Amino acid sequence: MKTYILNRIIGSFFVILSVLVINFLIVNLAPGNPVVFMGGETGLVSKEYMDYMMKKWGLDKPIYERLIIYMYNVLRGDLGVSYRYLEPVSKLILERIPTTLMITVPSIILGFLIGTLLATLSAYRAGTFLDSLLTTLSMIFYSVPLFWLGIVLINIFSVNLKLLPATGMISAQLIGKTGSLEYYLDILKHAVLPITTLTLGIFPAYFRLTKSVVMDQLTEDYVLTLEAIGLPRFKILYKHVLRNALLPAITLLGLQLGFAFAGAAIIENVFAWPGIGGLMLNAISARDYPLIMGIFLFVTSMVVVANIVVDLVYGYLDPRIRKG
Amino acid sequence: MNYWKKISSIIPTYVVILLIVIVLSPVIYTQGQQVLQNTCPVRGGTLVIIYWGEPKSWNPDSQVDDALNGINPSIFNRLVALDYAYNVIPDLAESWSMDPNATEFVFHLRRNVTWHDGTPFTCRDVKWTFEAIRKFKGIAYSNLKMSSLQEVVCVDDYTVRFIYNESFPAFISFLAWYGTWILPEHIYNKTEYSDWMDPSIPALQRPIGTGPFKFVEYVKGSHIVLEANENYFKGRPCVDRVVYKIVPDPTSAEQTFLAGEGDVLQNPPPISDIPLLNKTPGIIVKTLPTLSRYYIGFNMLKPLFQDYNFRLAIALSIDRDELNQKAYNGYAFPATTAWLPGMAAWWNPNATLPQYNPEKAKQILDELGFKVGPDGYRSLPNGTPLELRLLVFQGSTSEAIGQVLKEQLRRIGLKVSLEVYEIATWETKVVKNRDFDIALCDGFHGPDPHNMYMRYASFAYINFANYSNPEFDRLVVEGSRTADPNLRRELYFKAQEIFASDLVYIPLLDLPAFFIYREGWNNMPWDLIGMEPINSWLRAWFGKSLTTTVTTSQTTPTTPSPTTQSMTPATQTTSPQTTIAVSPTSTPVSPGLNMTIIGFAVGILVLVVLIAVFFVVKRGRK
After folding, report:
1. Rounded to 5 degrees, what angle do the CA atoms A101, A102, A106 make?
2. In chain B, what are the helix, strand and coil shares in percent, each to the nearest 5?
3. Residue B569, pLDDT score
4. Chain B within 8 Å of A39 (Cβ-Cβ)?
5. Residue B516: what pLDDT?
6. Contact B252, B58 (CB under 8 A)
7. pLDDT at position B9 over 60
8. CA B419 to chain CA mean position, Å
9. In this predicted structure, what is the pLDDT of residue A62?
């Protein structure tokens, strides 16, 4: 078991290292130069300004030299300073983690829960109206673009029903009133729509995955045996069948927790939620090299870590992996 | 009493202007006007602006930052400013003058101005700001021709003189435009800072300006809060706070506005939604022409486009009304002249472009030997098939214009392949590498006709088409040196005629600006042309407008009553301006009990799920 973990960790180190190099090259070789971008409307950029900024940011050096400098800095734990915000990249990323996790984690868990439970129900009632309804719904949510769904939800719940706030994280009139109960409730209210949208986008994957497995399981002999013993249907379904059918869903859950850090960029953009996704989109559109690379590196590290955790959980759940 | 105040504050200015005129008798072009002190029928409340972007930094002069530029007028001031009709109006300078050669400019500064930290504003700040723009290559560096700026002299604490090596009559217009915000010398000018973007400068986290609002808080990606500056030199703003709520996505910004969470929508919605917003009760939509326009340019490095008749054929095939309808819902203005009518003083109505005439275009192409093949498309006279590459940048409008152009050129038998790129790639391909046949571009053509020099002269960086006409160059260079407005106008009028007849660049649409806000707000900057700069919320107040109160009795106060003055921003939104309000500004989402329950439910759900997962994992081991 120890060699297994060690192997995985050493392997991950090289994965991250190569991702670092590839990220650097992709970002730095992409067309469009951050200096031109700082110029925005092209009419305003003077040659003097471009030269000054290129030199200031060290972009006048050849690319391999910059790569070496960057890797050296990263290994020392320094992700650099954002061109745009003039603040350390690590600080900018750390600031945004809680807000992003606040919407992604609940929606992944809710999606997992709703998806698997509905799948069990749907598989048990296979062929009925309920089954086709649930399957159709999950297909619809699976294929609908999430940003559109978000806008539709805003339109229904904020514009028409006036039940929930539309965008942002805090109402304008509560800004600065940190510490009051009202303030935190307001943040929760703002989180409801993004979480709902994300959940609706996430659950179909679990639904489809679990449903097929449950249907397989229902044909197994042990189900017949349990029925013969006289166990209530509900208990057979949720206590025995679902538990056996849950493994693939748990794998997916683990992977998605890795993406929880950056997978919601579009939703964050639609709901103006100040998370990592928004930061990333802004950084890309401004060609803020250090920030883009920092975020990419962070996200890949998280996905790699999540993968290791999933592998370890698997090893823990399944002795064949552990010992094999 | 108010009258006395006004008159007494006007007198010194006139005396000063009179004195200047007398003392500096060779100075001929003097401008300036007294700015009215702010009076508010209603005070208090919060103005919530749904805003499109995040500022890049809090240094307004260091880089192009359109998001910050929209916020700047609240925090900072310039010497002179532009209003929504692109007139130059006084800001920190109450009057200014230019010598007949347009090489020396004198500005007389206001005396009652303080920085937000209480330090008085003087000429030192002005001098340092412009020296810093020159030293650190600020964004106004090339606009203000900093390489020709000989000296900035403080004649005394409240008089500043700019001395140029060469004539530069456009100086004052550009001074009123971009990247010329006056910065506090006492904060920035310290030896320990490497330059004006040194991260340790406190004003880069909490900006200090002279403007009508003081910085309170900025939460990245979420909001910016400003509060009224009690000591503003034009008087305190009418509202207590301005909140910029950052919503980057235009559609969700529009929905947020419709949900009542903001007073002004400053993230332009899709053009197709404007009619709907206009019809919505309680929402006001206004438009004004701008100095931005869409235009195409031909790649003059290619022999094909060096043929005037070929360019003429394409110019004749463009139906601007159709472009306007299909790409801009009819809200834009078809560009029929070389220059923009929005810049009325410099616009030559006779410099017209060829009108839509597809038959004539076809005839010209036939004469040139571009024969129509069996597929309906023309080929080159030597028989090789012809396909023109039209490069546009991403954006619903520019892509729509590209589509319509493609279709219009197809109608005269020219095959066009439309290539859409992200703006940075577009810039690399078109401006840098000249790798295109036709390129669509848009841009701000102001604030001065000197923009012709910067945009279309043969040596201009963004002259991507390689337009080169020595006579045009001569005229715009001459125009950039002539101080006499009448002579200048003549030069630019001629330049426009040449530009229109050369057909290297074809203007398409002049764009409007949309102002979308909630009914009940008065004295918005777009209503105060000649008085307030673009995006200045100094005089904005919420309540029943004075024009409609004429019919009601005098119960509607025209001067603020003590009760409305003392309103706090938090109560304003829940109980909007008691008697005078027509509709609530930001309809708050009622903090009802049901929401509390939903909140708790979510929390509990998450907890339950965590427990469930834990058990599932734990039992799996058995």
Report:
1. 95
2. 35, 20, 45
3. 31
4. yes
5. 96
6. no
7. no
8. 28
9. 86
- Lowest mean per-residue pLDDT among A32-36, A169-173, B590-594: B590-594
- In the 8-state DSSP scheme, what is residue B270? P
B98–chain A nearest CA distance, Å = 25
Reduced to 3 states (helix: H, G, I; strand: E, B; else coil), residue B375 is coil
Furthest-apart CA atoms within chain A: distance in Å: 86
How many CB atoms are located within 10 Å of the residue A166 CB?
30
d(CA B109, CA B162): 13
Residue B1 pLDDT more than 60?
no
**A contacts of B199 (beta carbons < 8 Å):** 81, 86-87
CA distance B530 to chain A (A): 26
Minimal C-alpha gap between A53 and chain B (Å): 9
Q: Which H helix or E strand runs over A264? A: none
What is the distance between the alpha carbons of residues B246 and B200, in angstroms, rounded to a whole number? 26
Q: How far apart are CA B31 and CA B22, in angstroms?
A: 14
Domains of chain B (ranges; CATH) run: 2-30+590-620 (no CATH), 33-282+519-558 (3.40.190.10), 290-512 (3.10.105.10)
- In the structure, what pLDDT confidence band is assigned to residue B579 with cuts at 50, 70 and 90? very low
**Identity of the residue in B216, B591, B606 whose CB atom sits nearest the CB atom of A182:** B591
Give one DSSP letter per residue of B441-460, joined into a string. Answer: EEEE--SSTTHHHHHHSTT-
Question: Does residue A246 carry a pLDDT above 70?
Answer: yes
Per-residue pLDDT, B126:
97
The strands making up B104-109's β-sheet, listed across from edge to edge, are: B29-32, B93-98, B104-109, B159-164, B149-156
Number of alpha carbons in the 13 Å side-chain half-sphere of residue B32 = 25
Instruction: Tell me, yes or no, if A78 comes closer than 8 A to chain B by beta carbon.
Output: no
Average pLDDT over residues A265-275: 91
Of B52, B61, B62, B139, which to mutate for an interface test with A (greatest number of A Cβ within 10 Å)? B139
B234-263 pLDDT tens trace? 999 999 999 999 999 999 999 999 999 999
Which positions in chain A touch B443 (Cβ < 8 Å)?
Answer: 41-43
The DSSP annotation for B291-351 comes to EEEEEEEE-TTSHHHH-HHHHHHHHHT--HHHHHHHHHTT-SEE--BSS-TTSGGG--TT-
Cis peptide before A34 (omega within 30 of 0): no
Q: Is the pLDDT of residue B134 over 80?
A: yes
- Domain assignments of chain A as residue spans, ordered by start: 97-286
Mean pLDDT taken over chain A: 85
Alpha helix stretches (DSSP H) within B503-560: 546-549
The DSSP bridge pattern shows strands B264-266 and B283-298 to be: unpaired
Q: Which of residues 83-102 of A touch B (CB under 8 A)?
A: 84-87, 92, 95-96
What average pLDDT score do residues A170-185 get?
A: 83
ipTM: 0.88
Of B57, B424, B570, the CB nearest to A287: B424
Tell me the two tokens of residue A231: 């166990």
pLDDT class for B495, splitting at 50, 70, 90?
very high
Residue A157 is given by DSSP the state I
Give B137→chain A minimum CA distance, Å. Answer: 5
Per-residue model confidence as pLDDT tens digits over B288-336: 889 999 999 999 999 999 999 999 999 999 999 999 999 998 999 999 9
Nearest CB among A51, A185, A275 relative to B599 is that of: A185
Contact yes or no for A168 and B217 at CB 8 A? no
- Number of H helices and E strands in chain B, helices first, is 20, 20
DSSP string, A10-62: HHHHHHHHHHHHHHHHHHHHSSS-HHHHHH-SGGG--HHHHHHHHHHTTTTS-
**Maximum average pLDDT range among A59-68, A285-294, B488-497:** B488-497
Enter the CATH code of domain A97-286. 1.10.3720.10
